[in-house]
Automatic annotation (TrEMBL):
Superkingdom, natural source: Bacteria
Limits of the HTH tetR-type domain: 11-71
Residue ranges: DNA binding: 34-53
Name the UniProt record assigns to this protein: TetR/AcrR family transcriptional regulator
Native species: Paenibacillus lacisoli
Keyword set, alphabetical order: DNA-binding
Signal peptide: none
Pfam families: TetR_N (PF00440)
Amino acid sequence: MNDSWHQKMKNKHRDELMSAGKELFMRQSFLTVNIKDVCETAGISRVTFYKHFQSLDELILEVQMDLLRRMTAYVEQSAPIEGRGKERLESMLNGWINFALDHPGYIRFILLFDLHYEAYISNRDLHERYQRFIREEKENVFLIDVLHAGVSDGSLQSGINVLETAYFIFTSMMGILQKMSLNRMDHIEEKLEHARMPQLLVTMLMQYLSH
């Protein structure tokens, strides 16, 4: 057995714990999940858990950051590489809605984490790690490039403050998508009904930003 094998097993166990935690957090509030639940779901010992995470708080934090990265990547990939900024932005916003419809549990988890992490994550190192993550995400908001492109090609208003607009769009979209995620969407008709409000927001944003 070489170092490469040990590293693969280590990564495998971590991935299994992340997957188990995510499964449990989607099924129930992370406030009611414990380390024993995660270990039993993953089929991994408690000793192995502590080789990867110092606490359940750390696992919860890692899941939060993973979901935000997944959402960002999905939205970014929704926009065509070619085309004017306006069309690319609209594609991204509609992709965002589709992500929320396909993964309402992810959006609910992000909402619950945002509401509780200040009080729930008492470990200072974890708190600072999340703050660094948020700062880096804000500095690289995935909407900034496409807004700049729209201003440059004339398809979006030239007078907008790109950074403030990106933050506003992000906050508005997440707010309405999180509200949508709190409702049950068991059937396609229900999904279409709940998508109307965020789609209305997209329409209003595009009308406001269009040149």
